[in-house]
From TrEMBL:
Entry-linked InterPro entries: K/Na/Ca-exchanger, NaCa_Exmemb, NCX_ion-bd_dom_sf
Spans traversing the lipid bilayer: 6-26, 38-55, 75-96, 108-129, 141-160, 186-208, 220-242, 254-273, 285-305, 317-336
Biological classification of the source: Bacteria, Pseudomonadati, Thermodesulfobacteriota, Syntrophia, Syntrophales
Protein's organism: Syntrophus aciditrophicus (strain SB)
Molecular functions (GO terms): calcium channel activity; calcium, potassium:sodium antiporter activity
Keywords linked to the UniProt accession: Membrane, Transmembrane, Transmembrane helix
Key word Cell cycle present: no
Membrane topology: Multi-pass membrane protein
Any Gene Ontology CC annotation: plasma membrane
Primary localisation category: membrane
Protein name as it appears in the record: Sodium-calcium exchanger
Cellular location(s): Membrane
Gene3D superfamilies linked: NCX, central ion-binding region (1.20.1420.30)
Gene Ontology biological process: intracellular calcium ion homeostasis
Amino acid sequence: MNASVSTAWLSFMLCVILIGVAGSRLSRYGDVIAHKTGMGGTWVGLILLAAVTSLPELITGVSSVTLADTPDIAVGNILGSCIANLTQIAVLDFLIRGASVYSRVSRGHILSAGFSIILIGIIGFSLLIGANGWSISLGHIGIYSPVIVVLYFVAVRSVFRYEKAQQGNPAEEEDPYPGFLLRKAVVLYVLASLVVVAAGVWLPFVGVNLAHVMGWRQSFVGTLFVSLITTIPEATVTISCWRLGAFDMAISNLLGSNLFDITILAVDDLFFLKGPLLFRASTLHAVSVLSAVMMNGALIIALLCRPQVRLFKTVGWTSLFLFSLYLLNSLVLYLYGK
């Protein structure tokens, strides 16, 4: 391995360490802030933790379309993150013993998955019509961007109203962090955020360098490797929730991150001054769009049917389907990406 390849991989690993460590701190301090301010478990997962753990995607996307000028990495990172988050549900199901994760969580997650299908469908629709020259824009921004932002807030409001109706008037929870001051949590949260921001700005350049020295295509790097790094905070939260037995919070964080990640594309579109972002990206990303749609569909079916059968008593068929789609999507991008 020559010096340039070694440097590229060392940079990659450093990004993994920085985002992984800082992301785990972000999740913990975000949880402290949520409890200290009286936010419920739904908001911890869907809003606060989702926004916190999606910070690398936000910074990476903006820096990809501005500093690095790599729209395919920006789009691929978002779609790849959505697919990786759904695959983490399969990992969570594998870690759980006894009944599957789909039978242990609220059916209310169907709302988040359903809205994700709509938002991801808008991305796929925009990619395809842009490739045929039928773009509709507001200046340099695609018409899809304001639609995505509006639907995001509709989704959040719908999920919140549903959960509130289901919970009724729950008893006041005991503060799990009695000795942790809110001010201290906020300061540590900001410090951890700065580390994630720094690593996120560096990340797209690492992706471009890897694509160059390894001979990989940018759509593959963006969708698999960059998205793998930026979903490390979500993975950290998922493992933490598994250890606590808070499966609903874990699923809510993953699906909430997907909703937030898709909305990040509208922010990336705003900073990409060469025209609508999705109209300049490769149509191969439509493969990731369809993969994400199928994965969300499988998740909805599992949440409705609550399957009990597990292969070798370790993992359900739904989880195997999710993981298989992740591998297939990665293989197609590697073989046919531009």
